[in-house]
Amino acid sequence: MASVACAAEGAAHESAFTTIMRVVNFIIFVGIIYKFAGKKIAEAFGGRRKQIETQLSDLEARKKDAEKKLADVERSIAGINAEREKILADCVAQGEALKASIIEGANKAAERIKEQARLTAANERKAAMKTVRAEIADMVAEAAKQALAGKLSAEDHDKLINDSLTKVVLN
Length: 171
Fold this sequence. Notes:
Blueprint: H1 2-151, H2 154-170
């Protein structure tokens, strides 16, 4: 039993020794790696950290830039809406002005047509009056001729013609 205990104790001792040797071996290995590649590893991790920081700051700057552009676009949209409203108001005002000018032109044209109709009616009335007067004069002359023809003799008729011709020549 004692030999078994010794063997067990030696195995435990050997196992602890192996473990300690492994730890020492690992420490030496890490020390060698640190000695030869420590700076490069630190630079790689540090460089990666700097790269991440740079990317974060770059992304932050891009975010701010995008926010500026968004604000510009929103202002532009607001400006476009205001400009659209102004254009619509201008179009409505121009339409109203055009409507007023068309109505004014139509009213002036109507007045000209009324005046022209009045002048035409006055001219036609004058022409009708001349025609009626001429017809009345012809009828009076015919009636006077018939009345005188029965009362006047041929000598009186010649004398009347000569007197009329004398008055026409003198006037």
